[in-house]
Write a structure and sequence with these properties.
Structural class: alpha+beta
Helix content: 25-40%
Number of domains: 1
Largest sheet: 5 strands, antiparallel
Distance between the termini: 44 Å
């Protein structure tokens, strides 16, 4: 079985939004973000509950990208929308259908080692794999691969904030130098 770092998927950031927005456009923008970075993509769940005050929608995305023959990066996105209603808005002189909702988007990531289970079949190979991860790759995982994955996940979150027109949009390096 392959190893994951962090062992448990942890949410690194959240976006909370309430108001009118173009959900279809947001959805497409995020899918393009993954496509541009050559991620494989799987929409694990799309749940839509119709309620009297407005629908409730839950969506789970799992996206992965092979970095090396041994390392795979995973990015997870969870959407939860409440009071989901279609509204008609006049924007730039044209009527457009948009969505009014309360929305939560959570972003998480993980690194998977030995994703093809090439080092799994014997105890000796498993021990070599563990030594390789703990000692030979440790510095690269902490400084190169882990940081890059964290920053890329953060860039996705910032792209969402920018698309929604949130005032809290900022870059990770805003307060540096």
């Amino acid at each position: 079985m392959s190893d994951f770092i962090p062992a448990k998927r942890e949410v690194i950031s959240r976006v909370r939004y309430k108001g009118v927005f173009d959900f279809e456009g947001l959805y497409k923008m995020m899918r393009e973000w993954f496509k541009d970075r050559e991620y494989e993509f799987w929409e694990k769940r799309f749940k839509h509950k119709v309620k009297a005050g407005g629908s409730e929608v839950e969506i789970n995305w799992d996206a992965w990208r092979d970095v090396t023959e041994f390392l795979r990066n995973w990015t997870y996105v969870y959407f939860h929308l409440w009071d989901y209603k279609e509204v008609e808005v006049v924007k730039d002189g044209q009527k457009k259908k948009m969505i009014y909702a309360r929305m939560l988007i959570e972003f998480a990531y993980q690194m998977e080692f030995d994703y093809e289970n090439k080092w799994q079949d014997t105890a000796f190979k498993r021990k070599l794999r563990d030594i390789y991860i703990k000692y030979a790759l440790k510095k690269d995982v902490e400084t190169i691969y882990g940081d890059k994955l964290w920053y890329n996940t953060n860039k996705l979150q910032q792209a969402v904030k920018l698309y929604l027109g949130m005032e809290s949009y900022s870059d990770v390096y805003d307060d540096m130098w």
